[in-house]
Predict the structure.
Amino acid sequence: MIAKTEMQDLIVVDGQARGIVTRHLITGECNVHIADAVILATGGYGNVFYLSTNAKGSNATAIWRAHRRGALFANPCFTQIHPTCIPVSGDYQSKLTLMSESLRNDGRIWLPKKKGDARPPDQIPEDERDYYLERRYPSFGNLVPRDVASRNAKTLCDEGHGVGKTGLGVYLDFSEAIKRLGEKTIRERYGNLFDMYQRITDEDPYKVPMRIFPAVHYTMGGLWVDYELQSTIPGLFVLGEANFSDHGANRLGASALMQGLSDGYFIIPNTISNYLATHKFPKVENSNPAVQEAVATVQARIDTLLSIKGKRTVDSFHRELGKIVWDDCGMARTAPGLELAIGKIRELRQEYWKNVTVPGSGDDLNESLEKAGRVSDFFELAELMCIDALHRNESCGGHFREEHQTQDGEAQRDDEHFSYVAAWGYTGPDSAPELTKEPLEFHYVHPSQRSYK
Ligand SMILES: Cc1cc2nc3c(=O)[nH]c(=O)nc-3n(C[C@H](O)[C@H](O)[C@H](O)COP(=O)(O)OP(=O)(O)OC[C@H]3O[C@@H](n4cnc5c(N)ncnc54)[C@H](O)[C@@H]3O)c2cc1C
Protein backbone atom coordinates (compact mmCIF):
# COMPACT_ATOMS: atom_id res chain seq x y z
CA MET A 1 0.00 0.00 0.00
CA ILE A 2 1.41 3.34 -1.04
CA ALA A 3 -0.63 6.11 0.58
CA LYS A 4 -0.66 9.85 -0.15
CA THR A 5 0.23 9.14 -3.74
CA GLU A 6 -1.58 10.20 -6.86
CA MET A 7 -1.46 8.46 -10.21
CA GLN A 8 -0.40 10.96 -12.84
CA ASP A 9 0.04 8.92 -15.98
CA LEU A 10 -0.26 5.48 -17.50
CA ILE A 11 2.76 3.72 -18.94
CA VAL A 12 1.99 1.92 -22.19
CA VAL A 13 4.75 -0.26 -23.64
CA ASP A 14 4.22 -1.89 -27.05
CA GLY A 15 0.47 -1.37 -26.74
CA GLN A 16 0.15 -2.93 -23.28
CA ALA A 17 -0.51 -1.07 -20.01
CA ARG A 18 2.66 -1.79 -18.03
CA GLY A 19 2.60 0.61 -15.12
CA ILE A 20 1.90 4.07 -13.81
CA VAL A 21 3.72 7.24 -12.86
CA THR A 22 2.76 8.68 -9.48
CA ARG A 23 3.47 11.85 -7.55
CA HIS A 24 3.93 11.68 -3.80
CA LEU A 25 1.67 14.33 -2.31
CA ILE A 26 4.00 15.16 0.60
CA THR A 27 7.45 15.02 -0.99
CA GLY A 28 6.43 15.83 -4.56
CA GLU A 29 8.56 12.91 -5.77
CA CYS A 30 7.52 11.34 -9.08
CA ASN A 31 7.86 7.55 -9.09
CA VAL A 32 7.54 4.80 -11.64
CA HIS A 33 5.64 1.59 -10.81
CA ILE A 34 6.06 -1.16 -13.39
CA ALA A 35 3.50 -3.98 -13.47
CA ASP A 36 2.10 -6.68 -15.72
CA ALA A 37 -1.34 -5.05 -15.66
CA VAL A 38 -2.95 -1.93 -14.25
CA ILE A 39 -6.30 -1.66 -12.45
CA LEU A 40 -7.94 1.73 -12.03
CA ALA A 41 -10.68 2.04 -9.41
CA THR A 42 -10.42 5.78 -9.05
CA GLY A 43 -14.08 6.77 -8.87
CA GLY A 44 -16.31 9.20 -10.71
CA TYR A 45 -15.82 12.69 -12.09
CA GLY A 46 -18.82 14.58 -10.66
CA ASN A 47 -16.48 17.29 -9.40
CA VAL A 48 -16.09 18.54 -12.96
CA PHE A 49 -19.20 20.52 -11.93
CA TYR A 50 -17.19 22.02 -9.04
CA LEU A 51 -20.13 21.52 -6.66
CA SER A 52 -21.26 17.94 -6.20
CA THR A 53 -22.00 15.46 -3.44
CA ASN A 54 -18.65 13.76 -4.12
CA ALA A 55 -15.72 14.02 -1.75
CA LYS A 56 -13.75 17.18 -2.44
CA GLY A 57 -10.75 15.16 -3.61
CA SER A 58 -12.63 13.06 -6.19
CA ASN A 59 -11.28 13.76 -9.65
CA ALA A 60 -10.87 12.43 -13.16
CA THR A 61 -7.10 12.55 -13.50
CA ALA A 62 -6.35 8.82 -13.52
CA ILE A 63 -8.96 7.92 -16.13
CA TRP A 64 -8.40 11.06 -18.15
CA ARG A 65 -4.65 10.51 -18.42
CA ALA A 66 -5.38 6.90 -19.44
CA HIS A 67 -7.81 8.28 -22.03
CA ARG A 68 -5.03 10.50 -23.34
CA ARG A 69 -2.94 7.32 -23.72
CA GLY A 70 -5.60 5.70 -25.88
CA ALA A 71 -8.36 4.28 -23.66
CA LEU A 72 -11.79 5.12 -25.10
CA PHE A 73 -14.09 7.20 -22.88
CA ALA A 74 -17.72 6.15 -23.05
CA ASN A 75 -20.95 8.11 -22.57
CA PRO A 76 -19.38 11.04 -20.74
CA CYS A 77 -22.58 13.10 -20.83
CA PHE A 78 -24.67 10.76 -18.66
CA THR A 79 -24.77 12.34 -15.22
CA GLN A 80 -26.99 11.49 -12.33
CA ILE A 81 -28.46 14.44 -10.52
CA HIS A 82 -29.76 13.56 -7.06
CA PRO A 83 -32.96 15.38 -6.07
CA THR A 84 -32.43 15.36 -2.32
CA CYS A 85 -29.49 17.60 -1.47
CA ILE A 86 -29.19 20.63 0.76
CA PRO A 87 -29.43 23.68 -1.54
CA VAL A 88 -26.38 25.80 -2.37
CA SER A 89 -26.04 28.52 0.23
CA GLY A 90 -23.35 30.83 -1.15
CA ASP A 91 -20.44 31.48 -3.49
CA TYR A 92 -17.82 30.19 -1.10
CA GLN A 93 -19.27 26.74 -0.69
CA SER A 94 -16.94 23.95 -1.77
CA LYS A 95 -19.25 20.93 -1.80
CA LEU A 96 -22.86 19.85 -1.47
CA THR A 97 -24.44 17.62 1.16
CA LEU A 98 -26.64 14.73 0.20
CA MET A 99 -29.74 14.03 2.28
CA SER A 100 -30.57 10.37 1.92
CA GLU A 101 -32.99 9.20 -0.73
CA SER A 102 -34.87 7.37 2.02
CA LEU A 103 -36.37 10.68 3.16
CA ARG A 104 -38.69 10.56 0.17
CA ASN A 105 -40.41 7.51 1.70
CA ASP A 106 -42.19 9.71 4.23
CA GLY A 107 -41.46 13.31 3.23
CA ARG A 108 -43.84 15.07 0.86
CA ILE A 109 -42.36 17.39 -1.74
CA TRP A 110 -44.19 20.61 -2.49
CA LEU A 111 -43.92 24.21 -3.65
CA PRO A 112 -46.21 27.21 -3.30
CA LYS A 113 -48.68 27.42 -6.19
CA LYS A 114 -48.14 31.17 -6.36
CA LYS A 115 -44.89 32.31 -7.97
CA GLY A 116 -42.54 34.25 -5.69
CA ASP A 117 -44.61 33.38 -2.60
CA ALA A 118 -42.37 34.50 0.26
CA ARG A 119 -44.62 33.45 3.14
CA PRO A 120 -43.13 30.98 5.63
CA PRO A 121 -44.29 27.46 4.80
CA ASP A 122 -46.60 27.13 7.81
CA GLN A 123 -48.55 30.15 6.59
CA ILE A 124 -49.24 28.67 3.18
CA PRO A 125 -52.60 26.83 3.37
CA GLU A 126 -52.98 23.34 1.96
CA ASP A 127 -54.97 24.45 -1.07
CA GLU A 128 -52.17 26.87 -2.04
CA ARG A 129 -49.53 24.14 -2.08
CA ASP A 130 -48.56 22.12 -5.11
CA TYR A 131 -47.50 18.57 -4.25
CA TYR A 132 -46.28 18.43 -7.79
CA LEU A 133 -44.85 14.89 -7.88
CA GLU A 134 -48.03 13.44 -6.36
CA ARG A 135 -50.08 15.51 -8.81
CA ARG A 136 -48.10 14.54 -11.92
CA TYR A 137 -47.20 10.95 -11.06
CA PRO A 138 -50.09 9.56 -9.00
CA SER A 139 -48.79 5.98 -8.93
CA PHE A 140 -45.20 6.78 -7.90
CA GLY A 141 -45.72 10.16 -6.20
CA ASN A 142 -42.66 11.33 -4.29
CA LEU A 143 -40.83 8.11 -5.16
CA VAL A 144 -40.33 8.78 -8.87
CA PRO A 145 -36.75 8.14 -10.08
CA ARG A 146 -34.05 10.67 -9.39
CA ASP A 147 -33.92 12.24 -12.84
CA VAL A 148 -37.69 12.81 -12.92
CA ALA A 149 -37.82 14.29 -9.40
CA SER A 150 -34.81 16.51 -10.17
CA ARG A 151 -36.13 17.81 -13.46
CA ASN A 152 -39.52 18.66 -12.02
CA ALA A 153 -37.88 20.64 -9.21
CA LYS A 154 -35.74 22.51 -11.71
CA THR A 155 -38.65 23.34 -14.02
CA LEU A 156 -40.80 24.76 -11.23
CA CYS A 157 -37.92 26.71 -9.67
CA ASP A 158 -37.05 28.12 -13.10
CA GLU A 159 -40.69 29.22 -13.39
CA GLY A 160 -40.40 31.15 -10.12
CA HIS A 161 -42.00 28.79 -7.58
CA GLY A 162 -38.75 27.93 -5.77
CA VAL A 163 -38.28 28.63 -2.07
CA GLY A 164 -35.45 29.83 0.14
CA LYS A 165 -33.14 32.82 -0.32
CA THR A 166 -31.99 31.78 -3.78
CA GLY A 167 -35.32 30.45 -5.03
CA LEU A 168 -33.50 27.21 -5.86
CA GLY A 169 -35.14 24.94 -3.35
CA VAL A 170 -38.27 22.85 -2.82
CA TYR A 171 -39.89 21.74 0.44
CA LEU A 172 -39.56 18.20 1.76
CA ASP A 173 -42.20 18.18 4.44
CA PHE A 174 -42.58 15.66 7.27
CA SER A 175 -45.50 17.31 9.10
CA GLU A 176 -48.07 14.87 7.74
CA ALA A 177 -45.81 11.87 8.49
CA ILE A 178 -45.18 13.13 12.04
CA LYS A 179 -48.94 13.49 12.55
CA ARG A 180 -49.58 10.01 11.15
CA LEU A 181 -46.67 8.09 12.72
CA GLY A 182 -45.60 10.26 15.63
CA GLU A 183 -42.31 12.15 16.05
CA LYS A 184 -40.71 9.17 17.82
CA THR A 185 -41.05 6.96 14.74
CA ILE A 186 -39.74 9.64 12.42
CA ARG A 187 -36.82 10.24 14.81
CA GLU A 188 -36.06 6.50 14.80
CA ARG A 189 -36.16 6.36 11.02
CA TYR A 190 -34.33 9.53 10.11
CA GLY A 191 -32.98 11.08 13.32
CA ASN A 192 -29.35 11.21 12.16
CA LEU A 193 -30.32 12.89 8.87
CA PHE A 194 -32.53 15.43 10.64
CA ASP A 195 -29.66 16.25 13.03
CA MET A 196 -27.28 16.70 10.13
CA TYR A 197 -29.75 18.94 8.31
CA GLN A 198 -30.25 21.07 11.43
CA ARG A 199 -26.51 21.42 11.99
CA ILE A 200 -25.98 22.64 8.42
CA THR A 201 -29.02 24.89 7.96
CA ASP A 202 -29.85 25.83 11.57
CA GLU A 203 -33.48 24.89 10.88
CA ASP A 204 -35.39 22.19 12.75
CA PRO A 205 -36.95 19.79 10.21
CA TYR A 206 -39.30 18.41 12.89
CA LYS A 207 -40.90 21.87 12.91
CA VAL A 208 -40.33 23.37 9.43
CA PRO A 209 -40.06 21.52 6.12
CA MET A 210 -36.57 20.75 4.87
CA ARG A 211 -35.44 22.63 1.79
CA ILE A 212 -33.79 20.49 -0.83
CA PHE A 213 -32.52 20.90 -4.40
CA PRO A 214 -30.97 18.58 -6.98
CA ALA A 215 -27.18 18.22 -7.13
CA VAL A 216 -24.64 16.29 -9.18
CA HIS A 217 -24.16 12.92 -7.53
CA TYR A 218 -22.85 10.19 -9.82
CA THR A 219 -21.29 10.00 -13.26
CA MET A 220 -22.36 7.09 -15.42
CA GLY A 221 -19.76 7.70 -18.12
CA GLY A 222 -16.18 6.55 -17.74
CA LEU A 223 -13.55 4.49 -19.48
CA TRP A 224 -15.09 1.95 -21.85
CA VAL A 225 -14.57 -1.64 -20.72
CA ASP A 226 -15.60 -5.03 -22.05
CA TYR A 227 -17.23 -7.74 -19.94
CA GLU A 228 -13.78 -8.63 -18.61
CA LEU A 229 -13.54 -5.01 -17.35
CA GLN A 230 -10.66 -4.44 -19.73
CA SER A 231 -10.39 -1.07 -21.43
CA THR A 232 -9.35 -0.59 -25.04
CA ILE A 233 -5.72 -0.65 -23.87
CA PRO A 234 -4.76 -4.29 -23.27
CA GLY A 235 -3.81 -4.79 -19.63
CA LEU A 236 -5.67 -1.71 -18.38
CA PHE A 237 -8.69 -2.75 -16.28
CA VAL A 238 -11.18 -0.27 -14.89
CA LEU A 239 -13.56 -0.93 -11.99
CA GLY A 240 -16.41 0.83 -10.20
CA GLU A 241 -17.58 4.33 -11.01
CA ALA A 242 -14.44 4.93 -13.08
CA ASN A 243 -15.74 2.69 -15.85
CA PHE A 244 -18.85 3.37 -17.89
CA SER A 245 -21.05 0.78 -16.23
CA ASP A 246 -22.04 -1.00 -19.47
CA HIS A 247 -24.40 1.72 -20.57
CA GLY A 248 -24.41 5.06 -18.85
CA ALA A 249 -28.15 5.21 -18.48
CA ASN A 250 -28.32 2.15 -16.24
CA ARG A 251 -27.55 3.93 -13.01
CA LEU A 252 -31.15 5.15 -12.92
CA GLY A 253 -32.04 1.77 -11.57
CA ALA A 254 -28.80 0.16 -10.48
CA SER A 255 -26.69 0.34 -7.36
CA ALA A 256 -23.23 1.80 -7.69
CA LEU A 257 -21.98 0.02 -4.61
CA MET A 258 -23.20 -3.35 -5.90
CA GLN A 259 -21.42 -2.67 -9.18
CA GLY A 260 -18.22 -1.80 -7.33
CA LEU A 261 -18.47 -4.95 -5.23
CA SER A 262 -19.19 -7.27 -8.12
CA ASP A 263 -16.44 -5.70 -10.23
CA GLY A 264 -13.92 -6.13 -7.44
CA TYR A 265 -14.92 -9.44 -5.80
CA PHE A 266 -16.33 -11.52 -8.60
CA ILE A 267 -15.23 -10.29 -12.01
CA ILE A 268 -11.69 -8.98 -11.89
CA PRO A 269 -10.10 -11.91 -9.97
CA ASN A 270 -11.19 -14.16 -12.84
CA THR A 271 -10.70 -11.92 -15.82
CA ILE A 272 -7.31 -10.50 -14.91
CA SER A 273 -5.97 -14.01 -14.42
CA ASN A 274 -7.14 -14.87 -17.96
CA TYR A 275 -5.19 -11.89 -19.19
CA LEU A 276 -2.07 -12.71 -17.18
CA ALA A 277 -2.17 -16.35 -18.33
CA THR A 278 -2.47 -15.52 -21.99
CA HIS A 279 0.00 -12.69 -22.47
CA LYS A 280 3.75 -12.28 -22.34
CA PHE A 281 5.36 -9.65 -20.15
CA PRO A 282 8.90 -8.83 -21.22
CA LYS A 283 10.83 -7.02 -18.50
CA VAL A 284 10.37 -3.24 -18.61
CA GLU A 285 13.20 -1.12 -17.23
CA ASN A 286 12.84 2.48 -16.05
CA SER A 287 15.12 3.41 -18.93
CA ASN A 288 12.51 2.22 -21.45
CA PRO A 289 11.64 5.18 -23.74
CA ALA A 290 7.90 4.80 -23.00
CA VAL A 291 8.60 5.06 -19.27
CA GLN A 292 10.91 8.02 -19.73
CA GLU A 293 8.35 9.75 -21.92
CA ALA A 294 5.55 9.27 -19.34
CA VAL A 295 7.72 10.66 -16.53
CA ALA A 296 8.78 13.61 -18.69
CA THR A 297 5.14 14.36 -19.55
CA VAL A 298 4.17 14.38 -15.87
CA GLN A 299 7.10 16.58 -14.92
CA ALA A 300 6.50 18.99 -17.81
CA ARG A 301 2.87 19.50 -16.81
CA ILE A 302 3.86 20.20 -13.19
CA ASP A 303 6.60 22.62 -14.29
CA THR A 304 4.27 24.44 -16.67
CA LEU A 305 1.56 24.87 -14.05
CA LEU A 306 4.08 26.26 -11.57
CA SER A 307 5.64 28.60 -14.11
CA ILE A 308 2.50 30.39 -15.34
CA LYS A 309 2.25 32.62 -12.27
CA GLY A 310 -0.93 34.28 -13.47
CA LYS A 311 -3.59 36.17 -11.59
CA ARG A 312 -6.44 33.73 -11.02
CA THR A 313 -6.62 30.89 -8.53
CA VAL A 314 -7.28 27.32 -9.60
CA ASP A 315 -10.54 27.39 -7.64
CA SER A 316 -11.83 30.46 -9.45
CA PHE A 317 -11.32 28.70 -12.80
CA HIS A 318 -12.85 25.50 -11.49
CA ARG A 319 -15.90 27.33 -10.13
CA GLU A 320 -16.46 29.07 -13.46
CA LEU A 321 -16.00 25.84 -15.41
CA GLY A 322 -18.42 24.06 -13.10
CA LYS A 323 -21.06 26.72 -13.60
CA ILE A 324 -20.84 26.41 -17.39
CA VAL A 325 -21.21 22.64 -17.24
CA TRP A 326 -24.03 22.84 -14.68
CA ASP A 327 -25.97 25.46 -16.65
CA ASP A 328 -25.60 23.90 -20.10
CA CYS A 329 -24.77 20.23 -19.57
CA GLY A 330 -26.59 19.65 -16.29
CA MET A 331 -30.19 18.66 -15.66
CA ALA A 332 -31.38 19.89 -19.06
CA ARG A 333 -29.45 20.48 -22.27
CA THR A 334 -30.16 22.14 -25.62
CA ALA A 335 -28.13 22.19 -28.84
CA PRO A 336 -27.54 25.98 -28.77
CA GLY A 337 -26.64 25.86 -25.06
CA LEU A 338 -24.14 23.06 -25.61
CA GLU A 339 -22.55 24.78 -28.59
CA LEU A 340 -22.13 27.90 -26.54
CA ALA A 341 -20.74 25.92 -23.62
CA ILE A 342 -18.11 24.24 -25.80
CA GLY A 343 -16.90 27.67 -26.95
CA LYS A 344 -16.85 29.02 -23.39
CA ILE A 345 -14.97 26.00 -22.06
CA ARG A 346 -12.32 26.29 -24.80
CA GLU A 347 -11.82 29.99 -24.09
CA LEU A 348 -11.60 29.43 -20.36
CA ARG A 349 -9.10 26.59 -20.88
CA GLN A 350 -6.91 28.86 -22.96
CA GLU A 351 -7.04 31.49 -20.27
CA TYR A 352 -6.24 28.84 -17.66
CA TRP A 353 -2.95 27.94 -19.30
CA LYS A 354 -1.99 31.65 -19.42
CA ASN A 355 -3.42 33.07 -16.23
CA VAL A 356 -3.64 30.47 -13.49
CA THR A 357 -1.57 31.00 -10.37
CA VAL A 358 -0.12 28.06 -8.47
CA PRO A 359 1.86 29.23 -5.45
CA GLY A 360 4.61 27.17 -3.81
CA SER A 361 6.79 24.52 -5.36
CA GLY A 362 6.50 20.99 -6.64
CA ASP A 363 8.83 19.59 -3.97
CA ASP A 364 6.49 19.40 -1.02
CA LEU A 365 2.83 19.36 -0.04
CA ASN A 366 1.11 21.74 -2.45
CA GLU A 367 -2.65 21.40 -2.63
CA SER A 368 -2.95 24.14 -5.25
CA LEU A 369 -0.65 22.19 -7.51
CA GLU A 370 -2.66 18.98 -6.97
CA LYS A 371 -5.87 20.81 -7.82
CA ALA A 372 -4.28 22.56 -10.80
CA GLY A 373 -3.45 19.24 -12.44
CA ARG A 374 -6.94 17.87 -11.80
CA VAL A 375 -8.66 21.00 -13.11
CA SER A 376 -6.56 20.88 -16.28
CA ASP A 377 -8.10 17.44 -16.90
CA PHE A 378 -11.60 18.62 -15.97
CA PHE A 379 -11.38 21.23 -18.74
CA GLU A 380 -10.83 18.62 -21.44
CA LEU A 381 -13.38 16.25 -19.92
CA ALA A 382 -16.02 19.01 -19.67
CA GLU A 383 -15.63 19.71 -23.36
CA LEU A 384 -16.01 16.04 -24.20
CA MET A 385 -19.15 15.84 -22.04
CA CYS A 386 -20.70 18.69 -24.02
CA ILE A 387 -19.66 17.16 -27.35
CA ASP A 388 -21.23 13.86 -26.33
CA ALA A 389 -24.42 15.58 -25.09
CA LEU A 390 -24.65 17.57 -28.32
CA HIS A 391 -24.22 14.55 -30.56
CA ARG A 392 -26.80 12.48 -28.61
CA ASN A 393 -29.82 14.00 -30.28
CA GLU A 394 -32.34 12.36 -27.96
CA SER A 395 -33.21 12.30 -24.28
CA CYS A 396 -32.14 9.16 -22.49
CA GLY A 397 -31.76 8.40 -18.80
CA GLY A 398 -29.50 10.95 -17.18
CA HIS A 399 -29.29 12.96 -20.41
CA PHE A 400 -32.26 15.24 -21.03
CA ARG A 401 -32.30 17.27 -24.24
CA GLU A 402 -35.10 19.83 -24.06
CA GLU A 403 -35.73 19.43 -27.80
CA HIS A 404 -36.61 15.78 -27.21
CA GLN A 405 -39.48 15.43 -24.79
CA THR A 406 -42.97 14.00 -24.93
CA GLN A 407 -46.00 16.26 -24.73
CA ASP A 408 -45.96 15.64 -20.99
CA GLY A 409 -42.39 16.88 -20.70
CA GLU A 410 -40.85 13.42 -20.24
CA ALA A 411 -37.65 12.11 -21.85
CA GLN A 412 -38.08 11.02 -25.47
CA ARG A 413 -35.56 8.45 -26.67
CA ASP A 414 -34.63 7.82 -30.28
CA ASP A 415 -33.68 4.15 -30.22
CA GLU A 416 -33.52 3.92 -33.97
CA HIS A 417 -30.56 6.28 -34.13
CA PHE A 418 -28.98 6.30 -30.67
CA SER A 419 -29.21 2.83 -29.22
CA TYR A 420 -25.46 2.63 -28.84
CA VAL A 421 -22.65 3.36 -26.45
CA ALA A 422 -20.71 6.41 -27.60
CA ALA A 423 -17.03 5.64 -27.01
CA TRP A 424 -14.73 8.57 -27.72
CA GLY A 425 -11.06 8.43 -28.67
CA TYR A 426 -8.61 11.17 -27.73
CA THR A 427 -6.94 12.93 -30.65
CA GLY A 428 -5.38 15.90 -28.84
CA PRO A 429 -6.56 18.82 -26.71
CA ASP A 430 -7.50 20.94 -29.71
CA SER A 431 -8.85 18.41 -32.16
CA ALA A 432 -12.20 16.68 -32.41
CA PRO A 433 -12.50 13.35 -30.57
CA GLU A 434 -13.19 10.23 -32.63
CA LEU A 435 -16.49 8.46 -32.07
CA THR A 436 -16.82 4.67 -32.01
CA LYS A 437 -20.34 3.29 -31.66
CA GLU A 438 -21.00 0.06 -29.80
CA PRO A 439 -24.56 -1.01 -30.72
CA LEU A 440 -26.85 -2.06 -27.89
CA GLU A 441 -28.73 -5.25 -28.64
CA PHE A 442 -31.68 -6.37 -26.56
CA HIS A 443 -32.76 -9.99 -26.95
CA TYR A 444 -35.06 -10.62 -23.98
CA VAL A 445 -36.14 -7.36 -22.38
CA HIS A 446 -36.70 -4.52 -24.79
CA PRO A 447 -36.51 -0.84 -23.90
CA SER A 448 -39.88 0.88 -23.60
CA GLN A 449 -41.11 4.36 -22.82
CA ARG A 450 -40.90 5.00 -19.07
CA SER A 451 -44.13 6.08 -17.38
CA TYR A 452 -44.69 6.86 -13.70
CA LYS A 453 -48.22 8.15 -14.07
C1 LIG B 1 -22.68 11.07 -0.59
C2 LIG B 1 -22.79 9.83 -1.42
C3 LIG B 1 -23.72 8.84 -1.10
C4 LIG B 1 -23.84 7.70 -1.90
N1 LIG B 1 -24.76 6.74 -1.56
C5 LIG B 1 -24.85 5.62 -2.31
C6 LIG B 1 -25.76 4.57 -1.97
O1 LIG B 1 -26.51 4.68 -1.00
N2 LIG B 1 -25.80 3.46 -2.77
C7 LIG B 1 -24.99 3.31 -3.86
O2 LIG B 1 -25.04 2.28 -4.52
N3 LIG B 1 -24.12 4.29 -4.20
C8 LIG B 1 -24.02 5.42 -3.46
N4 LIG B 1 -23.15 6.41 -3.83
C9 LIG B 1 -22.28 6.18 -5.00
C10 LIG B 1 -21.13 5.28 -4.59
O3 LIG B 1 -20.73 5.58 -3.27
C11 LIG B 1 -19.93 5.50 -5.51
O4 LIG B 1 -20.33 5.36 -6.83
C12 LIG B 1 -18.87 4.46 -5.18
O5 LIG B 1 -18.38 4.68 -3.87
C13 LIG B 1 -17.73 4.52 -6.15
O6 LIG B 1 -16.78 3.58 -5.71
P1 LIG B 1 -15.39 3.44 -6.41
O7 LIG B 1 -14.61 2.48 -5.59
O8 LIG B 1 -15.58 3.20 -7.86
O9 LIG B 1 -14.74 4.91 -6.29
P2 LIG B 1 -14.43 5.80 -4.99
O10 LIG B 1 -15.16 5.29 -3.80
O11 LIG B 1 -14.67 7.22 -5.41
O12 LIG B 1 -12.91 5.55 -4.75
C14 LIG B 1 -11.93 6.04 -5.63
C15 LIG B 1 -10.63 6.15 -4.88
O13 LIG B 1 -9.58 6.41 -5.80
C16 LIG B 1 -8.80 7.47 -5.30
N5 LIG B 1 -8.19 8.18 -6.45
C17 LIG B 1 -8.80 8.97 -7.36
N6 LIG B 1 -7.93 9.41 -8.27
C18 LIG B 1 -6.72 8.90 -7.93
C19 LIG B 1 -5.42 9.01 -8.49
N7 LIG B 1 -5.17 9.72 -9.59
N8 LIG B 1 -4.40 8.36 -7.86
C20 LIG B 1 -4.62 7.62 -6.73
N9 LIG B 1 -5.85 7.48 -6.17
C21 LIG B 1 -6.89 8.12 -6.76
C22 LIG B 1 -9.75 8.34 -4.52
O14 LIG B 1 -9.05 9.14 -3.61
C23 LIG B 1 -10.63 7.29 -3.87
O15 LIG B 1 -10.06 6.83 -2.67
C24 LIG B 1 -23.00 7.56 -3.04
C25 LIG B 1 -22.07 8.55 -3.36
C26 LIG B 1 -21.96 9.67 -2.57
C27 LIG B 1 -20.97 10.74 -2.96
